[in-house]
Structures are given as structure tokens and as C-alpha cells.
Design brief:
It contains 5 helices and 6 strands. It is an alpha+beta fold. It comes from Phytopseudomonas argentinensis.
């Protein structure tokens, strides 16, 4: 996996260098990105991060579109500086003019949401059910108190847990 992405990053840089007739500093590339984002360009660090799960599930489009999208951010930064809009005309110029790709701001990959646990708290109101995250539940265990805005009673853990 990393070899294909590294090769595509290099090809994008070579294409930009040919187009702009100048050299660009190559970025650090890592594969430690999770969640909904397919890739992220860290402009001041000259670093690219890619989501290995989304790459695995969408290889062809990811290599063609996502890698070029992120490289275009770094190229635009090196050419025009920090004051440009992330998906502004400079970035679009690179996507359309250099890579001959559509300048889509976001990917349309299907992202599987992970299941999360919710801890159910209640007050004395009839509709007073409050699903807490694991983090908030842990804070309660450490002594933090949460109150119902309506009845002002301290919320109590019911012992019930749900997965969403």
C-alpha cells in the first residue's frame, strides 16, 4: 500500500515540476489517519497523512484523485504562501491545470461509522433520559456532577448501556 501512494505522490510532484518549471520540496508521507478524512496536508510541516482504510476500500479513485488533491495543497502553499484559501483558485488551478482532474473539495467514499457506547443517565422529568459518552461517564466516576436544566436534579446513572 505505501509504495503505491509514495509512487503517486512522486508522480504528482514530477508533473507539477514539469508544469511550473521549478523544483518542489518533497513531503513526509504517513498513513496514520482515521475517521472520515481520506487525506490531510499539513502545509507548514510539509507533511501528508492518508487514511489506510479508505485507501484500501477505494484504491483507484484514491490514488488518482485523493493523492493529487492533497499534493495540490502543498504545491499551492509552496507557490503562493499561507494566505490562500484551502480550496481557492490557486488550488483549483493546480487540480485542473496541472493534474487535469476535477477540483472536488470532498471525497464521496462510504465511511463506516464505528459503534459507540452510551451510558444512560436520568433525572425526575418524564422525558429526562440523557445518553452520556464514555468520556463523560468516566468524569462522573471521578466525582463530576451533571444536572438536568429543567428540574435541576443531579443526573443519576441507570446502569443501562447502549451501543449506537
Amino acid at each position: 500500500m505505501p509504495e503505491q501512494i509514495h509512487a503517486r505522490v512522486e508522480a504528482c510532484y514530477q508533473q507539477a515540476e514539469s508544469f511550473f518549471k521549478r523544483r518542489f520540496t518533497r513531503p513526509q508521507v504517513c498513513f496514520k489517519l482515521r475517521g472520515q478524512k481520506a487525506g490531510v496536508a499539513h502545509l507548514t510541516e510539509n507533511k501528508l497523512r492518508f487514511n489506510p482504510q479508505l485507501y484500501h476500500e477505494n484504491q483507484d479513485d484514491f490514488l488518482r484523485q485523493t493523492v493529487a488533491h492533497e499534493v495540490a495543497h502543498l504545491i499551492a502553499h509552496q507557490l503562493f504562501g499561507l494566505r490562500i484559501q484551502p480550496h481557492g483558485e490557486e488550488w483549483q488551478l493546480i487540480m485542473r491545470g496541472v493534474y487535469e482532474l476535477p477540483a472536488h473539495r470532498c471525497h464521496s467514499y462510504e465511511v463506516k461509522r464505528r459503534t459507540v457506547s452510551r451510558f444512560i443517565y436520568r433525572c425526575e422529568c418524564p422525558e429526562g433520559e440523557f445518553p452520556f459518552s464514555a468520556q463523560r461517564h468516566a468524569l462522573v466516576a471521578k466525582g463530576r456532577r451533571y444536572f438536568c436544566r429543567r428540574c435541576k436534579i443531579t443526573l443519576q446513572f441507570t446502569g443501562e448501556q447502549r451501543s449506537e
